[in-house]
Write a structure and sequence with these properties.
- The chain is an alpha/beta fold and about 950 residues long.
- It folds into 7 domains: about 5-80, Arc Repressor Mutant, subunit A (Orthogonal Bundle), CATH 1.10.10; about 85-265, Rossmann fold; about 265-385; about 410-540, Orthogonal Bundle (PTS-regulatory domain, PRD), CATH 1.10.1790; about 550-665, Rossmann fold; about 680-805, 3-Layer(aba) Sandwich (Rossmann fold); about 810-925.
- It contains 42 helices and 22 strands.
- The strands form 6 sheets. The chain has a 5-stranded parallel β-sheet. It has a 4-stranded mixed β-sheet with strand order 12-11-13-14.
- β19 (about 690-695), α31 (about 700-715) and β20 form a beta-alpha-beta unit.
- α18 crosses α24.
- The longest helix is centred in the middle third of the chain and has 21 residues, at about 310-330.
- It starts with a helix and ends with a helix.
Length: about 950
């Protein structure tokens, strides 16, 4: 068989595959033919053009040029002609299957068909469905080709019943005020055809009687007419948005035998909605007679957003988006109208929140590239856009577009990184593992050989095995690169600096490839191209891998809009609603914020974990707390800036694993985008100042103390991060403090247990709650020097108590705690403190004493626990019982259980066993 016949056969076969899988023939590119047949691209182009001249193929202009077989396009049209109007309606074999079957039965029923009532919300397509029934009746010969279809909305004249009846049934001159002539009604005009009455429930009672008489007898008479009735043969289709069970409609359902309910758009499948969207864009192309290009994200938004007014709203929103894009088209030199997600209104963009729910459906549709709707030879044709080989044209067009929109060069570089990564992945994925001989027919053998040599070198240097597809993809890319350099065209990589920094090992290997190419072809390879080569070998490990989800991105910060603004900027710049922002007002309770952020993390987890980007304070510790409660993998990054959020979202959209995203973001400078208003003040403390609040009885008490400290520091305008911590053992306590000291500037520890590290500034809970924190921290903050005193000291007795660690004290010294509880915890503070006194005395009678500071911590902890139980909250599970030996501690446990009865009975609650174990553990620390 001649080569040209092989070309024709492969085009025909690919077109048939497209028709079977996609339902439409999009066409075949020259490159696809060359790769499938293993021939030179120039030979494929020559044969394709010869087949067009011979009238065997159709050529579709665009980028790239596409070809389709004449018979495939004709057969597609013939298939459309063979199907009836009702069968061709979108959803006829799915959500509208039953409605179509009912409509066919209504039309075919002898002698004239069955009158029909269409039910459905506003915008579901009742008018369109009625018109389709009319066309079907003409197709099967039930109505003549010139039969009338008369549509009337009863709501238009509902305010004037007489005029409404005159419109429907006609009127004699003088029958009502203003009737200066005889009027022919719509019923008479519809004789021999179909009369469609929309919003029929708006008919007056008199109008309903006249309509029912027409339905029952086929007779009517005009207003003012007193002679005999006139006969007409008309099929009536009524439509209403009312509930079929309403008393108003029951009168209609008794007279109209066929009731057809049309589904709302939310009940229709994604594939049906996709067909609707395509049909509406095709209608706009036919109206404007200009090709329309629609971005993947815009199409996804149209597929997913809520349409309260159903198909009618979807059609209107698509028309409006085209109108907006048309204004840009008129003022530019483009040859195509471009619709992108950036111009869509907010309520449409909100559809992205449903992406996770419908990901499989969207993947089936395959929206990865811009789609063009255009008119070709009088037919509407859909074409997948941008199947070009060259990465450079893609990037140049994207950069030009972003600059036109006034975007900064810095943000352009961040966005372009995603395009580079995505392009290379898509580019690599389309190659098969063909043999080398097939590749030699497309690309110069020397290019393939030198690429193969480089991949062996890189494999040894980097220590990784490359996907088989990389040889094909990289060889074709390098061939394009060499051609571009020879022609003197510029190569620009907007992400070069980051590539060098993030992938230094791979970049070094790519530099070696540049040397090989220069030695082989005598062409100097620019550094920008070295960056592209680097990304080929970096992204190779992701090609062919199946990731069932992406890493979630949660941005949480103090304030009323910081986090949500950062997330919005990243989402808008990268074209997808992926990051979620959580704004934490300063007055919000930490426990509430933790619960709300936990819920966000659960919602954003797609199975690959979540990266949390926070500013400071308790938010830094939330990730660990959430992981303990949910087991969702979480990485937390503090001191977050907008570029860091952009990078996290960008990597997540590439489906990069959690650990790799964490590494990439933390390698960004932590001071990107930050401007300090008073640099000298922080110049001697490059690390964050932190205070650790540690508690034996759990994080709840630590978080409550943290809130109190933050309020005081905020009033004094001091920048300090507070880290709440649970102590499981002294060894664990000291290890955590040592780690924090390495990473932060630890200025103080607030705890009922004094740490072993004598260098650490220690503050007892009693000193904190008695309002002496500002005195205790004065030595740290005075003049910015951490160790010099400021002539402020504690009472001698207080210092002695701290050093001796006294455990015996009068409960009267804790009377101030009642005020603290009443101000910070929503329980009866008087009843609680009295119950705690009985609890403490019971322990003392059995020879167990808890230190004053430990008692303060315990009071806070129990108060918080009781508040949760009284408000119906569940106390988070704890491992406290695993940290004690029940055989050894059984006696203490029994005493604690008995002592707690006074609190449980007076407050009418039942504490979980873990709280008993917490107190046993506390007694161990005291002794």
């Amino acid at each position: 068989m001649k080569r040209i016949e092989n070309v024709f056969t492969i085009v025909k076969r690919l077109c048939e595959e497209q028709s079977n899988t996609e339902g439409i023939v999009t066409g075949v590119s020259t490159e696809q033919v060359a790769i499938r047949l293993g021939i030179q691209r120039s030979n494929a182009s020559c044969d394709l053009n010869a087949l067009v001249k011979a009238g065997r193929l159709e050529k579709i202009e665009g980028k790239p040029v596409l070809y389709q077989s004449i018979d495939s396009s004709q057969s597609e049209d013939e298939d459309q002609m063979e199907r009836s109007a009702l069968d061709a309606i979108i959803g006829a074999d799915k959500s509208l299957k039953n409605a179509v079957k009912q409509a066919k039965a209504a039309v075919r029923y002898p002698p004239l068909g069955l009158h029909t009532l269409l039910l459905g919300e506003t915008g579901v397509g009742k008018s369109m469905f009625a018109e389709t029934i009319f066309r079907y009746a003409q197709e099967i010969g039930k109505l003549q080709a010139d039969a009338p279809f008369i549509a009337f909305n009863c709501a238009d004249y509902a305010h004037n019943p007489q005029l409404l009846l005159a419109q429907l049934f006609g009127a004699k001159k003088g029958s009502y005020t203003g009737a200066d002539r005889d009027r022919v009604g719509l019923v008479e005009k519809a004789n021999g055809g179909i009369l469609f009455l929309d919003e029929v429930h708006r008919l007056s009672p008199e109008g309903q009687e006249m309509l029912f008489y027409l339905i029952d007898k086929g007779l009517f008479r005009s207003m003012g007419e007193v002679e005999s009735y006139r006969k007409v043969e008309v099929l009536i289709i009524c439509a209403t948005t009312e509930n079929v069970d309403s008393s108003l409609l029951k009168t209609f359902t008794r007279r109209i035998p066929m009731i057809i309910k049309l589904p709302v758009i939310r009940e229709r499948t994604i594939s049906e909605r996709w067909e609707l969207i395509k049909s509406f864009f095709k209608q706009e192309v036919q109206c404007l007679n200009v090709p329309i290009s629609v971005s993947p994200n815009a199409l996804k938004a149209f597929l997913l957003y809520d349409c309260p007014n159903n198909i009618g709203q979807l059609k209107s929103d698509i028309k409006l988006s085209c109108a907006r894009a048309f204004l840009d088209y008129v003022g530019s030199k483009d040859e195509i109208i471009k619709v992108s997600s950036e111009e869509l209104p907010e309520y449409i963009l909100k559809g992205f929140v449903k992406y996770k729910e419908h990901r499989e459906d969207l993947d089936t549709i395959g929206l990865t590239e811009d789609i063009i709707f255009q008119v070709s030879h009088g037919k509407k044709i859909q074409i997948k856009y941008r199947d070009t080989v060259s990465i450079y044209e893609v990037l140049e067009q994207k950069i030009k577009s972003l600059r036109t929109k006034g975007m900064s060069e810095k943000n352009i570089q961040l966005i372009m990184g995603l395009d580079i990564d995505t392009y290379i992945k898509q580019y690599m994925a389309k190659f098969r593992k063909d043999n080398l001989e097939a590749l030699y027919k497309i690309v110069d053998r020397k290019v393939v050989d030198v690429t193969q040599k480089f991949l062996r070198f890189a494999s040894n240097k980097i220590g990784k095995q490359f996907n088989d597809k990389i040889l094909f993809g990289m060889s074709i890319h390098i061939s394009s690169t060499l051609e571009r350099i020879r022609e003197g065209k510029e190569i620009s990589n907007p992400h070069l600096t980051e590539i060098q920094k993030s992938y230094s090992k791979e970049f070094s290997a790519a530099v070696h490839f540049g040397v090989l190419l220069k030695e082989t072809f005598g062409i100097q390879i620019p550094l920008d191209e070295i960056g592209f080569i680097t990304m080929f070998i970096v992204l190779d490990e992701y090609i062919g891998k199946e990731y069932h989800g992406r890493v979630g991105v949660v941005v949480a910060m103090h304030g009323t809009s910081t986090a949500s603004s950062m997330a919005e900027v990243a989402n808008r710049l990268l074209g997808e609603q992926h990051a979620i922002g959580y704004d934490m007002p300063l007055e919000k309770k930490t426990e509430t914020a933790l619960a709300e952020i936990t819920q966000l993390v659960k919602e954003r987890n797609e199975g690959q974990g979540v990266i949390m980007l926070v500013d400071m304070g308790s938010l830094v510790m939330f990730g660990h707390m959430i992981y303990e409660n949910t087991s969702i993998p979480i990485k937390t990054i503090e001191m977050t800036s907008t570029p860091m959020v952009l990078e996290a979202v960008r990597k997540s959209l590439m489906r990069v694993p959690l650990d790799d995203i964490y590494y990439a973001v933390t390698n960004l400078s932590p001071y990107i985008g930050r401007i300090y208003s008073n640099p000298p003040e922080i110049s001697n403390r490059l690390k964050n100042d932190v205070i650790v609040v540690a508690c034996i009885t759990g994080k709840g008490t630590a978080i409550k103390l943290k809130t109190m400290i933050e309020s005081l520091l905020t009033a004094q305008e001091r920048r300090v991060d507070i880290i709440p911590m649970e102590i499981s053992s002294m060894k664990d306590f000291d290890a955590k403090l040592t780690k924090i000291k390495k990473e932060k500037n630890l200025i103080a520890v607030v705890s009922s247990i004094r740490p072993k590290d004598s260098v650490v500034h220690y503050i007892s809970p009693k000193q904190l709650l008695e309002g002496k924190l500002d005195i205790l921290l004065a030595n740290v903050f005075c003049d910015g020097k951490e160790t010099l005193p400021c002539n402020i000291s504690l009472d001698v007795d207080e210092e002695q108590n701290i050093s001796e660690g006294k455990t015996v004290f009068s409960l009267d010294r804790l009377s101030f705690m009642q005020k603290i509880i009443s101000e910070h915890v929503s329980i009866d503070s008087e009843k609680f403190m009295e119950s705690f006194r009985l609890f403490y005395l019971e322990l003392a009678r059995n020879g167990f004493f808890i230190s004053e500071d430990a008692s303060i911590g315990l009071i806070l902890h129990l108060a918080c626990a009781i508040e949760k139980l009284l408000t119906g909250e569940v106390i988070a599970p704890s491992n406290s019982c695993e940290l004690i030996d029940m055989e050894i501690d059984k006696e203490i446990y029994v005493i604690v259980e008995a002592a707690l009865q006074s609190i449980e009975e007076n407050l009418r609650i039942k504490l979980p066993i873990s709280e008993y174990c917490n107190i046993v553990k506390l007694i161990h620390y005291t002794y």
